[in-house]
Design brief:
This protein is mostly beta strands and 71 residues long. The chain has one domain (8-57). It contains no helices and four strands.
């Protein structure tokens, strides 16, 4: 199962193990400590549903300085 969310993709294998992948470029707009929540509702083999809730928290990235060094 691979449902796509607004910010990332949830993959669940046949054993019920799950992995959530988010494209860093899609969450760069988040400010320091700002959060976004993705909720995926999945069904187990017995038909019950469960929510997988992912919280993404923004961080301040280190500055990247480029250019030529002179002198």
């Amino acid at each position: 199962v691979t449902p796509a969310g607004a910010l990332g993709e949830l993959t669940i294998d046949e054993n019920g193990n799950w992995v959530y992948n988010v494209d860093n470029a899609d969450v760069q707009y988040l400010a320091q400590d700002e959060t976004k929540v993705e909720t995926f509702t999945v069904a187990s083999v017995d038909g019950t549903t469960h929510d997988i809730v992912i919280t993404i928290t923004g961080v301040n990235d280190s500055a990247v300085i480029s250019g030529d060094t002179i002198g």
